[in-house]
Amino acid sequence: MTEVIEQPVVEQRTGERILGALLYALFGVIVGTVTTFLHRGRVEIFDITLWVGIVLGLACILCLGIGLRLYLVDRWMTTGFAVGVVVAVGGLGLWNPGSSVVVVGDAFGLAWLALASLVAAACAFWPELPNRRVRTARARDEYDGRSHSNEEESPQ
After folding, report:
1. What angle do CA 13, 14, 19 make, to 5 degrees?
2. What distance in Å separates the CA atoms of residue 32 and residue 102, rounded to the nearest whole number?
3. In terms of C-beta density within 10 A (0-12 exposed, 13-18 middle, 19 or more buried), how is residue 91 classed?
4. Is 72 exposed, middle or buried (0-12, 13-18, 19+ CB in 10 A)?
5. 73-129 tens-digit pLDDT
6. pTM of the full predicted structure?
7. CA atoms within 13 A on the CB side of 153
8. How far apart are CA 154 and CA 51, in angstroms?
9. How far is CA 129 from CA 71, 93, 123, in A?
10. Using CA atoms, how far apart are residues 85 and 58, in angstroms rounded to an integer?
11. DSSP secondary structure letters along 66-100
């Protein structure tokens, strides 16, 4: 019989949360910078141009954002990551006196600016899902016809 062991919840202090969010924001700036420089990558196969850079960049931000959201209990870290991505993408895409050469003002550049920010924000502000381990243990017990009250009454 498999027993679910619940770990005690350790409360983080506000200083730890802020420091963690700042470190994940720095990580988000790095990811946002790298993916912004690579979002225009393309491959030509038989005279067909495939824009793989924007797809891989968005997939990278999405996978990292979902992974952080599922792994970390606290939203501060994922929000820090999202803020870092938005700052990097927005900062590199801003128009300046010499104009931006990293994010060109065409459809792909504007799509990158909008979608990268939306994907990062969606990962940070996605609603909290119930814990899978508790959910599957409860469903398994209901399927087997067991409940916590029956386990206490029956000696084994």
Report:
1. 105
2. 12
3. middle
4. middle
5. 778 888 999 999 999 998 888 766 666 667 777 788 888 889 999 999 998 888 776
6. 0.70
7. 5
8. 63
9. 12, 34, 12
10. 11
11. HHHHHH-S-HHHHHHHHHHHHHHHHHHHS--TT--
Joined tokens for residue 29: 């700036």
Task: Report the chain's C-alpha Rg in angstroms.
Answer: 22
Please say if the pLDDT value at position 28 is more than 80.
yes
Q: Which two tokens stand for residue 143?
A: 């399927």
Residues, the chain, total? 156
- Nearest-angstrom CA–CA distance, 148 and 156: 14
30-62 pLDDT, tens digit per residue, is 999 999 998 888 888 888 888 888 999 999 999
Tokens of 124: 């940070």
Please give the single-letter amino acid code of residue 33.
T
Q: How far apart are CA 82 and CA 37, in angstroms?
A: 18
Beta strands in the chain (DSSP E): 43-45, 48-50
Dihedral sign computed on CA atoms, order 60, 65, 71, 128: negative
Side-chain half-sphere exposure of 32, counting CA atoms within 13 A: 30
